[in-house]
Prior knowledge:
The complex is a heterodimer of chains A (233) and B (134).
Chain A: E1 15-17, E2 20-21, H1 25-32, H2 34-40, E3 93-97, E4 106-112, E5 118-121, H3 124-127, E6 132-134, E7 139-145, H4 175-184, H5 189-207, H6 212-217
Antiparallel strand pairs in A: 1-2, 3-4, 3-7, 4-5, 5-6
Chain B: E1 11-15, E2 24-30, E3 35-40, E4 43-49, E5 53-59, H1 68-78, H2 80-86, H3 88-100, H4 104-133
Antiparallel strand pairs in B: 1-2, 1-5, 2-3, 3-4
Amino acid sequence: MAPQQRKPHVCRNPDLIRGVGKYSRSKMYHKRGLWAIKAKNGGAFPKHEKQTVAAAPTEKPPKFYPADDVKKPLVNKRKARPTKLRASITPGTVLIILAGRFKGKRVVFLKQLTSGLLLVTGPFKINGVPLRRVNQSYVIATSTKVDISGVNVEKFDDKYFGKKVEKKKKKGEGEFFEAEKAEKNTLPQDKKDDQKSVDAALIQSIEAVPDLKSYLGARFSLKAGMKPHELVF
Amino acid sequence: MPFKRYVEIGRVALVNYGKDYGKLVVIVDVIDQNRALVDAPDMVRGQMNFKRLTLTDIKIDIKRVPNKKTLVAALEAADVKNKWESSSWGRKLIVQKKRASLKDFDRFKIMLAKIKKAGVVRQELSKLKKETTC
Lengths: 233, 134
C-alpha cells in the first residue's frame, strides 16, 4: 500500500457539458455515501459545535486621521529569483564574453549565482580571466563543454565579489592617504589561492582535449565573410 | 548549345525553393506546361512547379507514376544516392552543409590545420626554389 501506487482520482460527477453533471442530486447523495455517514451518526448528519472566537482586544480610536484618503499599495506576491538561465548554458560550457575588458575571450562557465550573474573563470593561467561575474546578456554560449566535475565552487557567492568596506579615517590628510593607496591595489592572497585551486582541476580536464587549451587562449573575432546570424556556435 | 537535361519521367531533380528545399526528387509525371508530379522516398507524392526544380544529370528507369515501393526499388537499382554524392555538384552541397554546421571550436581547429598545411607547403616550395637557383 505504498502511497506512490495510488491512481489519480477521477471526479465523481463528470460534466456532460459545462454546468450539467452526469448524475442527479439523489444519485450523488448515494455516491458520496452521505446515507452511510448519517447511519453511522444515528440518523442525522454529524455536527460539531461552533468554536468560540476569542474576543479581539478593543482597539482605541486613532489619535490622528489623515486629511486625504491614503491609498493602500497593491499586494505584490512576486518572489525575487535569479535570471532564467538559457538552456544552452550548463556548467562547463565555454562562453564568449562580448563586452568589457575581456571581450572576445573564451571562458569556462562554473555556476549561476543567486543574483543571476554567471560565475566564470579563464582559467587564469590560460587566458588571464580570473574568477569573475558576468551577465548572461553579454555572453555567447558555444556548444563546447569542459568536464567540470573536479571543481568545487560551493564557496563562491555574490558577497565574495562585493567591494570591501574600509574603516573611515576622519583625521589625517596628506601622508596617510598615500600610504592607503599603496595597500589597496594588490589582491589578497586568499583570493589568489582560490583561483589556483579552482583552476587546477579545470586545467587538467582541459588538457585532456586536444587544442582546447589554445582555443581558450585565443580571442574570438569576426572575420571577413562571417555572418553572425548564420554562424553556429 | 542544345539542351542536355530534359524534363522526362524518371528525371531526378533538386528542389531549389520551398519546404522541401535541397531534396532530390524524381519527376513521375508531367501535369501541364508548368507543373510536374514529383515523388521522393521521404515525402508524399505531390505537384511542383518546374521553377522550383533544378534538373540533374541523373535519370532513372520508371513507368509513369509508379507506386512508392517500385520507385524506391528503381532508385536503389540506379544507385542514385551514390551517383549524386560522388558528382561534383553533390559534393559541393555536402561541403556547404558541413561548413554551415561548424561550431566555434571546429572553426578554430580548421584554422590551425590551415596554418599547418600552409607551413608544410611553403617549406616544400622553398626547397624547390633552392634547387632551381643553385
